[in-house]
Design a protein that fits this description.
By secondary structure, the chain is of the alpha+beta class. It has a single domain, classed as 3-Layer(aba) Sandwich (Aminopeptidase), CATH 3.40.630. The protein has 4 helices and 5 strands. The chain has a 5-stranded mixed sheet with strand order 1-2-3-4-5. The longest helix has 15 residues.
């Protein structure tokens, strides 16, 4: 049975490992940096979980198999809405052997419901080409034009 829940500090090491695995699927990484990355990433997650970062996870047999991160952004107050919030979905990952089984779609359902409860006004994502259909099936669309300025 799969459990869906918010991650906490106890999950940070496993989430850091999955983050490494996710990036290793996309590009060649220097394995000599893996342990340092996992340590630094885990520490960063523990800090960010107390600030603006949330992570929903799917767990099977006490092992995280899928994750979706949400950065909650506070909007500048407006007269009609002082405490507006929106969410940025990022670093969505599903272990290869669990893909195409509906797990990540179910996890996204929990993310959307949690976002409604938290009163987020909208969720945004910058999808990769291969993930566009996943987001479309999850109800996302590209009706807004986003302009970007790369500073790197």
């Amino acid at each position: 049975m799969i459990e869906y829940r918010l991650a906490d500090d106890n999950d940070s090491d496993r989430l850091a490992e999955l983050r490494w695995q996710h990036k290793a699927e996309e590009e060649s990484l220097d394995l000599s940096q893996k342990d340092d990355f996992i340590e630094l990433c885990s520490a960063s997650l523990k800090t960010r979980f107390k600030e603006d970062l949330y992570c929903w996870v799917a767990v099977e047999n006490r092992i995280i198999i899928s994750n979706i991160y949400i950065v909650v952004v506070k909007k500048v107050p407006k007269p009609e809405k002082i405490n507006g919030l929106w969410g940025y979905i990022t670093a969505v990952y599903n272990m290869p052997e669990y893909r195409n089984k509906g797990i990540c779609s179910a996890l996204m359902g929990y993310v959307k419901e949690w976002s409604r409860i938290k009163k987020l006004e909208l969720l945004i994502v910058w999808p990769s080409e291969r993930s566009i259909s996943f987001y479309e099936r999850s109800g996302f669309n590209d009706i807004n034009d986003v302009m970007e300025l790369s500073l790197e």
